[in-house]
Design goal:
With 351 residues, the protein is of the alpha+beta class. It is built from eight helices and 17 strands. Strands 4-3-5-6-7-8-9-10 form an eight-stranded mixed beta sheet, sandwiched between helices. It binds 6-O-phosphono-alpha-D-fructofuranose (P6P).
């Protein structure tokens, strides 16, 4: 084991970083790691056991749930319940918040928002899927924790992370002091530190978005797409398009190689598709901690004030130079749009 540092050892070592923590956050991260190993076991067997395919149920998003979606949801809620450090779980797979109803958990300090298995439509074709989680400290000081404890801005997160079930299984997380990646070693059943102090390159040439939605993209996104596709050797264009339909997979690759992931408003998703609390906020926290940028095209993701549990947002996330370029084009059209609106209004007043 010389030279190997497990997730558990790392968490305890870093616990000293949290002046307030008495081990609760460390134990919470441990609980999430345990559930991730159980989910990983089933994801890796998918195809051999009856865990593929549809569960025959629909979640609040109106999406058909896969058997593995339901399985993963149960595993994370169960691990958080038995761990006793979490009082509420907000999960993509449940309509309402899940109060952890155990004597120990009632006074637990932490709230967990989670997408138990993101990209699950890819499971049946063996494309990487992931878990995304976000951890907040409960704000209410008496009685039961409520939805208000969940609807906190992304800047309030105390930790965030994802697990990617890909060619290897990794957990990547931050507690606000940088980003570290741990690869699961199945031979010892431990996540081991493999990517210390992860940083995203300032520039890159990979863009990830579903170009099938082009017709309904905002003009700024259309302009950015044209920009990345122009042949210009000086600026290493055209860039490379990489989109696997799994946010965790696309962002993890971009985190390592540099790149931008965009899910803007579309006809089908006029407010964006990705959910603020358990997809956009945690991924934004991680990417910012790695030196990148995350916005809705105009405003910093982490500053968005949540109003609803499953609210959605557009997201432009990744290498700062790429996101800033895309935001510049969004602003260009937004400015023109505002100018046009003002002009029209003036005409009306004069007319
Ligand atoms: P589309 C998966 O459903 C997900 O939430 C993200 O993981 C992924 O990037 C995106 O939606 C894919 O959406 O509309 O391109 O299939």
């Amino acid at each position: 084991m010389s030279g190997i540092k497990t997730l558990g050892q790392f968490i305890i070592e870093k616990q000293a970083d949290f002046s307030y923590a008495k081990g609760e956050l460390s134990r919470l991260l441990r609980d999430i790691g345990i559930a991730a190993k159980i989910v990983n076991r089933e994801v890796n067997k998918a195809g051999l056991v009856d865990i593929l395919g549809d569960a025959g149920t629909i979640n609040i998003q109106g999406e058909g749930q896969k058997k593995l979606d339901v399985f993963a949801n149960i595993q994370f809620i169960s691990a958080l319940t038995s761990g006793g450090e979490c009082c509420i779980v907000a999960t993509e797979e449940e309509d309402e918040i899940v109060r952890i109803d155990s004597p120990v958990s009632k006074n637990a300090k932490y709230i967990v928002c989670i997408d138990p298995l993101d990209g699950s439509s890819n499971i049946d074709c063996n494309v990487a899927v992931g878990t995304i989680f976000s951890i907040y400290r409960r704000q209410s000081v008496e009685g039961e924790a409520t939805l208000a404890d969940v609807l906190q801005k992304g800047t309030q997160q105390v930790a965030a992370g994802y697990v990617i079930y890909g060619s290897s299984t990794m957990m990547v997380y931050t507690t606000g002091k940088g980003v570290n990646g741990f690869t699961l070693d199945p031979s010892i059943g431990e996540f081991c530190l493999s990517h210390p102090n992860m940083t995203i390159p300032d520039g890159g040439n990979i863009y990830s978005l579903n170009e099938g939605n082009y017709v309904h993209f905002p003009e700024g996104v259309k302009k950015y797409l044209k920009y990345v596709q122009v042949h210009d050797e000086e600026t290493n264009r055209p860039y490379t398009s990489r989109y696997i339909g799994s946010m965790v997979g696309d962002i993890h690759r971009n985190l390592i190689k540099g790149g931008i992931y965009i899910y803007p408003t579309t006809a089908k998703s006029p407010n964006g598709k990705l959910r603020l609390l358990y997809e956009c906020n945690p991924m934004a926290f991680i990417v910012e901690q790695a030196g990148g940028v995350a916005s809705d095209g105009f405003n910093r993701i982490l500053e968005i004030e949540p109003t609803e549990l499953h609210q959605r947002s557009s997201i432009f996330i990744g290498s700062k130079e790429m996101v800033n370029m895309a935001e510049g084009m969004m602003a260009e059209f937004s400015a023109e749009k505002n100018v046009n609106t003002v002009t029209t209004q003036n005409l009306k007043q004069v007319g």
